[in-house]
Amino acid sequence: MGEMIQFKRPDGKTCPGYLATPKAASTAPGFVCIQEWWGLNDQIKKTADRLAEAGYRALVPDLYRGKVAKASDEASHMMANLSFPDAAEQDIRGAIQYLKQTSKKAAVGGFCMGGALTILAAARVPEMDAGACFYGIPDLAAAELSKIRIPLIGHFANQDGWCTPAKVNDLEAALKQSKSKFELYRYDAQHAFMNESRPQVYDAPSAKLAWDRTLAFLSKALV
């Protein structure tokens, strides 16, 4: 369903990405889908395909430029070496600008590391119309959440050692200081509960509920 493309960043450099296109093609609303810390792997491509089936032009920017991690220590190292401001302000913004050449509106959404980048982008990417964050929280001081004006939806797991319930409370308090109309949901599940390729944490009922809530949110936010 999808294909690899190259798109331009605001600084003129290029970024590779995986583009999945729905039947409505170029005029459908856009969704920049941000990878977990593993990289642009088959699982995140399938997520983009699923978004395309739901009617969105889904573009996954390849933040690691072709590298894919197989083990968590490797993924952690790759995430640590990623410049989050550059990823948000160049790769993600470039992806949004690419989609909005023909899509009237476009959202950014991501998982784990991609969820943190979604919230960072919401404060730093002016072309972004909405955001969907799945169990990821950036450094709140660096994220400048008070600047966020677009609607957001967030999904978090109660049994999450990284995005702990206390950190989610801090995120919620910070978002209340912004102009964002946001929805925040908590699930009795573990981190990465949306990732069907990881059976030890995948939680089908929570994943379906989060997916359905996200599609309902997008159908309102991107009209």
User: DSSP strand (E) fraction?
Assistant: 15-25%
Instruction: Report the uncertain regions.
Output: none
Overall 3D form: globular
CATH third-tier fold name:
Rossmann fold
- Beta strands, count: 8
Main β sheet profile: 8 strands, mixed
The number of helical segments is: 7
CATH superfamily: Alpha/Beta hydrolase fold, catalytic domain
How many structural domains?
1
Instruction: Please state the structural category.
Output: alpha/beta
Using the coordinates above, name the CATH class.
Alpha Beta
Q: In what order do the strands lie side by side in the largest sheet?
A: 1-2-4-3-5-6-7-8
Order of helices and strands: EEEHEHHEHEHEHEH
Q: Any idea what the radius of gyration is?
A: 16 Å
Percent helix: 25-40%
Description:
The chain has 223 residues and is an alpha/beta fold. The protein has a single domain (2-221), classed as Rossmann fold (3-Layer(aba) Sandwich), CATH 3.40.50.1820. It has helices at 42-53, 72-80, 84-99, 113-124, 140-143, 165-176, 204-221, and strands at 2-8, 14-20, 30-34, 57-61, 106-111, 130-134, 152-159, 182-190. Strands 1-2-4-3-5-6-7-8 form an 8-stranded mixed beta sheet, sandwiched between helices. α6 links the parallel β7 (152-159) and β8. α3 crosses α4. The radius of gyration is 16 Å and the shape is globular.
